[in-house]
Amino acid sequence: MIEVSNLKIQYANRRPVVEDFNLSVKAGQIVSIVGESGSGKSTVLRALLGALPENGKVTAGDIRFEGESILGYSKKEWQQYRGKKTAMIFQDSGAMLNPIRKIGSQIVEYLRLHEKLSKDEAWEKGKEALSMVRLPDSDNTMKAYPFELSGGMRQRVGIAMAMALNPGLLLADEPTAALDVTTQAQIVRLMLELMEKQDAGIVMVTHNLGVAAYMSDYILVMQNGKIVESGKAMEIVQNPQSDYTRTLIETVPRLGGKRYV
Length: 261
Description:
Layout: E1 2-11, E2 18-25, E3 30-34, H1 41-49, E4 56-65, E5 68-69, H2 75-81, E6 86-89, H3 93-96, H4 103-114, H5 119-132, H6 138-142, H7 151-163, E7 169-173, H8 181-198, E8 201-206, H9 209-215, E9 218-223, E10 226-232, H10 233-238, H11 243-250, E11 254-255, E12 258-259
């Protein structure tokens, strides 16, 4: 589905923030990128979406989606790629929503940007998407402002918008970090169910190795802009080869003497 080869990313003329990054994701696979803040993992995700800041650029390597390089896309091609082929769940979806516009108007605008739908058709499709993520009374949710929803509900709205157009690839940037532990578990299960239902691939960025181990097929461990270890999730957790990976595992909290990772 998506292949990243020898990717290098720089901001302005500074030293590269990501170097020699490689990634392969197939339909139905979940790959997690794990590392500390500043390791480059979110920068990779933004590159996959074509959403690097203005001074950020890919200076080497390639990103290919379904065999086609996306780096030379036109504005129109980027619009077709984002939303319908690839979508993003942000760390705090509430922060990405316009606080003075109702949820429904924002979902309708998003859907009509990517598909030829009437306002009524987009409204109904938005309600279906909210029901899909188990938000009760989707009609009232569409009529609510973001501040009227809890953090978990806003995150479900973000997931609903990302999944509404059935993208083949879902990018998730710390999708549970802003939530309490109970809501985190609900969101993780929801993402797994939707991924299986739609046969989507997921690239997830997280600093939580426990979440990565539970959800992922493969894990990439990043430090200082480079991959220091990669492999199947259980192999990484049970037999880490890098000192840095072992340090990450040691930071996972224990309960009753047992580490849940």
